[in-house]
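From the pipeline queue, job 12 of 40. The input is one protein chain; the requested action is below.

Action: predict structure.
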Amino acid sequence: MQQGLKDKVSIVTGASRGIGRAIAGRLASGGSTVVLTARDQQLLESAAAEIRAAGGTAEAIALDLRQADSGERAAQFAIDRFGRIDIVVNNAGATKRGEFLELTDDDFADGFALKYFGAVRLTRACWTHLKAATGSVVFISGAGGRTPGAQFTIGGSVNAALLSLTKALADLGLRDGVQVNTINPGTIRTARYTTRLNALAKERGLDPAAAEREYIKNAAIARIGEPEEIAAMVELIVGPEGKMFHGALIDMDAGSTKTI
């Protein structure tokens, strides 16, 4: 097992399940100590225990990143436990889908509160430590930031804001020695996807495999992605072979982004 991240300390948000959990496990397998954050303490502890059982080092802190002090609390937790912060992966945040005219101000505010402002606050709280460590920030945004749709007005807007933030912070990172990049996943095999797939299967009277084939055809994509694929890209970016990534907006969406 390669240990390209040995002696690094990483914070991963939304780490209790799905993409975030896969990222935390991948960074730990690469040698990084990992601080996992999410809202569900039980799921977090399960994810951390899984890392420890595989020989890694992990600690978990349950936080609601919509709260104004959560970024500072997560950063301080990492410093208190491990004395440094090298990598921040801002993965947390699910946004509500639906018809634009049925979405409320509160729906939009909640979408930005977690995925955008949560990431802003954590990155701000960690920046001095990242500067000292010549560290790295990765935002997990989404394909909808570049190719929004009618059912994704909140998510598309939040993701687009993260893309702009990435470019701005990458410029700041040139001065401060902090690497900043974004990955835009497409449809990934998570619990949210499974829920949508099951709804499609029920609506069309299909088995799950047939429903997935229909989903792929209608979305005009090559296939459904796996959380581990996103995790592998994160490890590459923040590792010793990823130093040429800076200010990059990396589409991992099986072809859903059709624009240049």
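Job complete. The chain has two domains: 9-188+230-251, 190-224.
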